[in-house]
Amino acid sequence: MCDAKKENPFDVSPQISISEFYAGRSVFITGATGFLGKVLIEKLLRCCPDIKKIYVLVRPKRGSRAQERVDTLLQDIVFDNVKAEHPGCTKKIVTVSGDIVDDDLGLTNEIMQQLVQDVSVVFHSAATVRFDEPLRLAVRMNIAGVQRVLNLCHKLPLLVSLVHVSTAYANCCLDEEIKEQIYPTSILPQQMIDAAEWMTDDTFDAIQPKLLGKHPNTYTYTKSLGEILLRDGRDEIPTSIVRPAIVTASWKEPLPGWIDNYNTATGLIAGFGTGFLKTMIGNPKTQLSLTPVDMTVNMIISCGWFNAVCKPKEVNVFHNICDQKNSVTIEAFLSRMKQTLAQNPMQAMVRVPSGKVTESLLWNKVLRFVYHLLPAFCIDCFNKARGKRVFLYQRYQIIHKASSVLEFFTMNSWQFSTVNTGRLSKLLCKDDQSMFYFDKLDFDWDTYLLNYNLGVKQYVMKEDMADLSKAKTRQTRLALIENVMKGVLLLLILTFVARQMGVTNKLWKLVWELVF
Question: Which has more pLDDT, 482 or 511?
């Protein structure tokens, strides 16, 4: 399938396309019910129609069995097109009940035997992505979970490719360009796994700051250790690591602007779009490294092909980042969002959308009090007097706590090397470059952010586009109310100042003459 004499895997000449490679093969996916996993399954079914089976590891959750969760997943709008194009394709999906935190992934002997006889490609994307996850749980999922997946891989005689999904921020503690390589850490992954097993909670919490070092949270720290464990424990399994930045709504596929969660930038759009969020900590010039989910999935599938066809001897790392020369800053992001929201306002809007980004912690506290806490307190008092539920002030406190974990990323920018990414793209034939795009230079932020905004409205907030006229009427009404309130507040301030200066009567006479 390639020129085996050439040791550099990027110098080979592949003789097989991506869809041809996956034809007749079975793959195993962790994290299948997540945002990324849904798009990965849909893309494999649609663009690799001859794939044999897709085994998905799913844990029972909240009283729902694994199969019930998969059945619910397949009812998502994201699968409508592929089910129409390839009727019956979802029968290729095999539900595997299990969990990455369980020994042997919680697999039964029967299903393990099936995987041993059938699976030749493994995609590992399951992880906890919470920034404030307790370190012990983050270790169990993001480090020990990698070990358990590796243990499975070593039992698969047909395995030709392992793709691990990490994050571009695994090494965000570095003050230099982040290269496509695995960086050393001060502690070995196995030592961390062992410590999480025997240390008490108090001891573990006490040493956490020292363990994290310059890492801003447990997520990036455990992801970096997971990469080391993968490199050292894979033996000869052809392996790639995909490091996406902030994974956001789809660019083109399966639907433009499709998103199913409030994480990261989506939460900003929803917060600012509803007028609920008015201020945040950040450097307005910070680059937002947003990566559409379809570009991330295309790279993951391409890496599965690359490992098997080119047989690299080393673990290759690929940064999945939008063109950094064409990146968008926080300031530009909010400006463009304001423009799109003016034309496509949200029905759930409670105040006119506007947002301030400041680097000053003190000024942000002042703005939070004026724009968030004070109005929330007044509204709660009003609702309490009417015998209604009081929740707004407490909700703002939760939002402020949650947003604080993002401050490290909104205050800093990074440069990521994408040499390997460019090389991988060049290995693909023209048809595959078009179908499995991940290194696009023609990315248009205006169109993307418009679709992103519409996606948040439709797919996350469940708003009907047919009600757009109602939303615009609501926006006009809220703007009027806000302007009246600002005018009243200004008059009260002027009256107070005038009274202190002893010129109240003259001031009101002047206002009367100007108005009437």
Answer: 482
